[in-house]
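Folds vary. Our protein:
___
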Amino acid sequence: MAFSSLWQRFQKYFLRYADLDFSIDISRMKFPADFFEKMRPGIEKAFAAMRELESGAIANPGEKRMVGHYWLRNPALAPTPELRANIEETNKRIKKFAADVHAGNIADESRRPFQHILLIGIGGSALGPELVADALGSADDPMDIYFFDNTDPDGFDRVFDKIDSLSETLVIVVSKSGGTKETRNGMVEAEAKFTQKGLHFGKHAVAVTGVGSELDKYAEKNQWLARFPMHDWIGGRTSVMSAVGLLPMALEGFDTDEFLAGAAAMDERTRIPVDVVLRRQRKRRERYGDPTLQRSAGVVQ
């Protein structure tokens, strides 16, 4: 395709939300000019299904479960006042817990502040926190973080070798069911290591799990520092905006309110029908003219 044609196509299909610092360019994808019009019935069906899910429709008939990760980003969308209150209260508790850890109000047995986090989980219970830590983490964070995200004993040892002070380490065990074997293996190994060092594991441990789960009961029985809920309407792969992701984020010093607000803003934008987006793009071009002068920056305002 000639450069001039590529440039015209780029102008038509490049999308930028400057206020969100978000851009996406689909102009090099090989779809025909009438693609969106042909896909309109399917797109409208998808939007309708999304509205039903966000209103609390049962998405998993076999287990009678809703899918509510949308509500985590904007609790006002929750279908009941009880769900909204639970989300907001959990977020408030997370921020309070992290603030107490950073201030030294929650500390190790010697009253020294916690410096490290060891998160034990697998799949969605670890991948989201790992992504956030890798994307946002820096040497200036108030706490650094390590992961047990599989059940490899040698891997456990390598992680332990990296943590210079186990006594100053806070452990977060994440399992929605509370019975995930790989996560339990990691927890058992961590508890044994703390005991070997003469440390009381419960004074270093926090659970993120379903209310009433095996892990929830174990944490309560052994007087862990705190327990945060993970609801059955949150899937592992979408759990990063629940306590699964927000707790380690807050402890690492990241702004969880800003994170959630950004996600909610993206949700709003992705609910705009594609024809409306393209129409707005066309009006912007008509209003501001040919953005050729911005070609070097690769941005169409």
Observations:
- Confidence is low (pLDDT under 50) at residues 290-301.
